[in-house]
Structures are given as C-alpha cells and as structure tokens.
Design goal:
single chain; mainly alpha
Length: 215
C-alpha cells in the first residue's frame, strides 16, 4: 500500500479506495484466468461451430460478464479492507493484526469448503461442457448472461479462499500464487472435491492453532 501511495495509519481518501478496488480487480483477474480458461475455450469452439459471429466480439462479451461478477467481489473486498483498516485490524503488510480475526477467517473459510454451496458451485466450475449445455443462450445478450452465470458460480466457489488473503497478506505474491494453484487443482484436477475438503480441513486446523496459541 505504501508503494501505491496509500497510508496505512490515516483515514482513506477516495483515491485510496479506487487504488484498492483496482488492486483487487487486477489480482482476481490474474488468479482466476487459468481456471476460467477451459470454459472460455470450449465456449469459443461451440460458437465457432454454431454461428458465424466474430469470435473476438462474443468472447469479449462472455468474458465481460464473467469479469463483471468478479469486479463486484473486488468492490466488496475493497470495502472489507477499508472497514478493517478503519478498525485498526490490519497491519502495514495488510495482514489481520489480531490472531482471533485471522483464526476466525481461516476457520470460516475452511468450514465453507465442505458446505453443499461450495460443492454445488465447484461442480459447475469442474464441468465446462455441462455448464454451457445447461445455461446456453444464443446471441450477444446470451453470451453476457452465460458469462455472468459462470462468474457467479466461480465467486461462489472461491470467495472464502480469497478471504484468506486477509490473513496471509493481501499483496503477498507467494500466497496469491499458491491460492491460484489450489483453485486450479480444485477446478481442473481429477479429484477436485477431495482437494477442496482436504484444503478445508487444513484451514480449520490452522485457524484453531492460531486462535489457541495466538501466533
């Protein structure tokens, strides 16, 4: 934040809020693009066979719908960061300053990993063909709706994992890369549901340790 000209001990300005939103939006695009690639490529192939529309246009519209949903998440994450900053609950490294808060985030994220909502959203993300067959809409408006729908499932699958960044450091590039790989394994790996549950158990255990021993 200091490198971006943002103070860590003063009230935020509008510029700070915009910087933070842009930071989250760029980070979410970088993290989610690899796991979204299969459905985008499959959508492109189906469009090429079905219609004569110029692919760059309709692909852009599909992608815009997907990014619109993640932009909404980025706005919510920026608002959460602002609230934590105002409450003096973030360190200068943008990590949760309280072990109770950090542990609570990890436990909540871990529990969500084994909920039916997580499982349902992950199922849609794991099957690009199934998603497109069940949500197919023709035309540009249809592409936008499909992009929004897929983005919603993607956010539903990954929002809790993204909140872990408040524990390890919002701009910690090592953890950003690690979470990106984990999300990719969940969505395209042969045992994605198992990976999700094991990851949830690890998060809960780490959260309990953090709360118990106040690391």
């Amino acid at each position: 934040m200091a490198a971006m000209g943002m103070s860590t001990d003063m009230p935020w300005t509008i510029t700070d809020a915009v910087y933070t939103f842009v930071m989250w939006a760029v980070m979410m695009v970088a993290m989610m693009t690899p796991s979204a690639a299969p459905v985008v490529l499959l959508f492109a192939g189906m469009q090429r066979r079905q219609s004569g529309q110029r692919l760059p246009v309709i692909l852009f519209i599909f992608g815009a719908g997907y990014l619109l949903v993640w932009s909404g998440f980025s706005a919510a994450a920026a608002a959460a960061q602002w609230a934590l900053h105002q409450a003096a609950m973030l360190s200068p490294a943008m990590e949760a300053a309280s072990p109770w808060l950090a542990g609570g985030i990890l436990i909540a994220a871990g529990i969500y990993q084994i909920t039916p909502s997580k499982r349902a959203c992950l199922t849609h993300c794991q099957s690009p063909l199934g998603f497109l067959m069940s949500h197919w809409r023709n035309g540009n408006a249809g592409a936008l709706r499909m992009g929004i729908a897929h983005g919603a499932y993607c956010v539903g699958c990954c929002w809790a994992l993204m909140c872990v960044l408040f524990v390890v450091g919002v701009m910690n590039l090592v953890w950003v890369a690690a979470l990106s790989v984990f999300v990719l394994l969940e969505k395209v790996g042969p045992a994605g549901q198992v990976v999700a549950r094991v990851g949830g158990a690890v998060l809960v255990a780490a959260g309990l340790l953090m709360v118990t021993y106040r690391f």
